TrEMBL record:
The UniProt record lists the keyword Signal: yes
Membrane spanning residue stretches: none
Assigned keywords, A-Z: Signal
Protein source organism: Sinocyclocheilus grahami (Dianchi golden-line fish)
Protein name, UniProt field: Citrate synthase
Length: 176
């Protein structure tokens, strides 16, 4: 999603308003892949139609004063709407991730499902642990993180499917 000042672009977003309202209606499923299986084909079709209709349209200028938005929600709105840990005051990262991926404000159950899913996938292959252990102690954490993510490519079901020529419309389906 791009950041748009909607008053300036009402001519483009008459049809999109219905999609936004529909996207805010949270799916009952807690399984993110099931939710995406429903959303992605619809979104692919909507984007294709939108590009065909408005691909050459200049939509205006974006300024810093318009603020940061996540799928249309401001930071204070995200802080209010997204699930928090018990006793916590800030949204859980899983909730923001769900919002960014689906466009839907997740339920507490959906965030709990995603937390468990991430925990199941938390183990690192021994070669990545060895690499991290051998980095100099003064190496910036983001450098360590990016190197580790790159090294995880050896275990990636997506990388394997990509090298086998999976159609880009099916990228989201190949992750486990």
């Amino acid at each position: 999603h791009c950041i748009f000042h909607q008053n300036s672009f009402s001519f483009l977003f008459q049809n999109a308003a219905c999609v936004v309202v529909a996207a805010r209606n949270v799916s009952a499923s807690t399984n993110l892949k099931d939710v995406l299986a429903d959303l992605i084909p619809k979104e692919q079709s909507r984007i294709k139609n939108f590009k065909q209709q408005h691909g050459k349209t200049t939509i205006g200028q974006i300024t810093v004063d318009m603020g940061i938005r996540f799928r249309g929600y401001s930071i204070p709105e995200c802080q209010q709407l997204l699930p928090k840990a018990p006793g916590g005051e800030e949204p859980l990262p899983e909730g923001l991730f769900w919002l960014l991926v689906t466009g839907q404000v997740p339920t507490e159950e959906q965030v709990n499902w995603l937390s468990k899913e991430w925990a199941k996938r938390a183990a690192l292959p021994s070669h990545v642990v060895t690499m991290l252990d051998n980095f100099p102690t003064n190496l910036h954490p983001m450098s360590q993180f990016s190197a580790a993510v790159t090294a995880l490519n050896s275990e990636s079901s997506f990388a394997r499917a990509y090298s086998e020529g999976v159609n880009k419309a099916k990228y989201w389906e190949v992750s486990h």
